[in-house]
Prior knowledge:
α6 (144-161) runs antiparallel to α11, α9 packs across α11 and α11 (254-285) crosses α15 (406-423). The protein is an alpha+beta fold. The protein has helices spanning 22-31, 62-71, 81-90, 99-109, 115-136, 144-161, 166-181, 188-192, 204-226, 236-242, 254-285, 287-299, 315-327, 359-362, 406-423, and strands at 46-49, 56-59, 76-77, 141-142, 334-338, 342-344, 347-349, 354-357, 424-428, 436-438, 442-444, 450-454. β1 and β2 form a beta hairpin.
Amino acid sequence: MLDRTAPVIPPAPVVHPKDLPAIRLLFGSIRNSLAIWPDYAFDVAFRRNKPLGIESVLVNDPAGVRHVMATNAAKYVRPAILPRLFRPLAGQGVFLAEGSPWRRQRRLLSPSFTPQRVNILLPHFIAAADGLIHQLEGQSGTNLLAAYQAAALDAVLRALFSMPDQEERARLGGLVREYFSGPGSPNILDAFASSETSLAFALRGRRSFQKRWSAAVDAIVTARRGAPHDTDHRDLLNLLITARDPETGDCLAGDEVRDQCATMIFAGYETTARLLFWTSYLLTLDRDEQARVRAEVAAFPPERVATLDDLGHWPRLRLVLLEALRLYPPVPIMVREPVEDDTIMGERVRRGVLVYVSPWVLHRHRKHWQHPTAFMPDRFVGQSSPWTSGSAYLPFGAGPRICIGAVFALAEAQIMLATLLQRYTLAIESERPVLPVGRLTILPSYTPIFSLQRVP
């Protein structure tokens, strides 16, 4: 008989016994960046490599990661591939801004994401969760990933624009999905581009998309700016329009507001939908954990949530989400380039070398985690925000550019899942494993159909 006390080991790509040949590594990185790692990567603290003659280092030590991402962050920049992929969606927003523009934007935006401000947004999350339940009503089997994408987009557009209009939400959602499945997909030319604008012929599709996307978001922002002041608009756009730089008193210009809104849509939509999907998948693998989460939700139903403090009634749900973020980090690989020679963990690193910090690898590193490939939510007991502890846990990045929307994302995910689990038991009838695929985020290898059984 199976030992029911043994932890669940969710399926994952194969770990290779040694480094892949350069060509397999290159094309494998484009197809699935999670399936390229050799076994030693999950043991070492620091490793040099030179595939295709391009020197790179892998940093797996928390102190080394802090050096690159926090302590010495000013000496590191992101390589050209990142703005090539994300500029059409994020424009000049805080995600891609550098230097003094980034510092100014961060000062202006940070007050909008404090717990006190996120409290204002909870009704939007609750409305989106209710919409999810309405969407699933009467279905015994469903594409839960698609349902989560619709619900997460609903949540972010409500929180950002107070936008209840379903047709407008569907239009924006269609644009984002079009980008991720089309011109936004990484390609071989991105890997060899020396700058954001080099190989310009390969960027035509992205530039065309950017014009349509910017126009769609700009139309919404312009309409709200031109409307009479309405104190009932308790949303992020209102906070952005009224935000003032604490150092200069300046406000965000119109194009800046548009780009921040565009950034929030793509950052808060796709990543949250993936978190909801992978958490649900883990709970189908561990029915006992699913039952424990459902019991605490039954003891404090979602309709009683009024403030962030109320989410404290669901500690197991939070632990499950934290563990899902460990096993399926929103950004599986981060790359930086030193702008001048540096020393990381006593190792000299030349200017221009690619420095890899992979949350996928770090979160499964054998020196930092007990049973690193297992689903064990209890590993986070007693840790209120483990992503700030300087440990080997980077679901929201690290250093000065750590995601300012962490509280927002976790609150939204807790309310969504609690509302769903209050009503349904989740299962997947197929025995085919769902493997994670690393692209811009972590995708499933196929879209499973979830079985929904109504809770008596």
